[in-house]
Amino acid sequence: MIYYLLSMLLFLIGLYGVLVKRNLIKIIIGLVLMEYATFLFLALVGYKKGGTAPIITKGFEKAVFVDPLPQALVLTAIVIGLATTALLVSIAVRIYQRYGTFDIREIRRLKG
Known about the structure:
CATH topology: Helix Hairpins
CATH architecture: Orthogonal Bundle
Number of strands: 0
Strand content: under 5%
Number of domains: 1
Order of helices and strands: HHHH
Radius of gyration: 20 Å
């Protein structure tokens, strides 16, 4: 139960970074924290205490297995998340090259 609460705390820390910070890089870091907190939560949903890998062989008919579906979904989401993070960072670099700042208040003022 404590791990679920810690993943929620990590999500809330990321949400704080997205809502309060005005630096684009800090906002991106907040989004990444929220993303990994979600991955951690999904991996915890599929975990069973004392569970083994879901490979059925002779003699393991009565064994407790972990759920492999959340693990597979999280692995896929990590790859997609990496691509979106790279896209966000490249957009932030282009914004910095154009406006010379990462501050979103300054970027709104210089809009043109």
